[in-house]
Amino acid sequence: MAGTDAKDALGTTEAAMNADPRVGLRAVAALRRLVERLETLQVGNARSQGWSWEEIGAALGVSRQAVHKKHARR
Questions:
Q1: 24-53, pLDDT tens digit by residue?
Q2: DSSP class per residue in the chain
Q3: Phi-psi category of 3—alpha, beta or left, where left has phi over 0 and alpha has psi -120 to 50?
Q4: What is the pTM of this model?
Q5: How far apart are CA 68 and CA 25, in angstroms?
């Protein structure tokens, strides 16, 4: 992530803790989208470096079947 993207992510994290549910819930949704993009990026990095589905699943705290089902088609 570039510096600006990281700052945006930090701002979004702060917004997720906002007392106004409208602000907080929008921020939570944005963070979910960010996490999905980052997971896809890192799973791709791991696969291109020869990691097995088992290793990736262990790193993510899920089964190899779960990570394979989610990312194998990408």
A1: 999 999 999 999 999 999 999 999 999 999
A2: --HHHHHHHHHHHHHHT-SSHHHHHHHHHHHHHHHHHHHHHHHHHHHHTT--HHHHHHHHTS-HHHHHHHHTT-
A3: alpha
A4: 0.82
A5: 29
Query: What is the dihedral angle through the alpha carbons of 72, 67, 70, 22, rounded to the nearest 10 degrees?
Result: -150
8 Å CB contact between 43 and 56? yes
Predicted local confidence at residue 9, as pLDDT: 84
Which structure tokens are listed for 50?
């020869």
32, two tokens? 């979910």
Domains of the chain, by residue range, sit at 3-71
Residue pair 18/27 in contact by the 8 Å Cβ criterion = yes
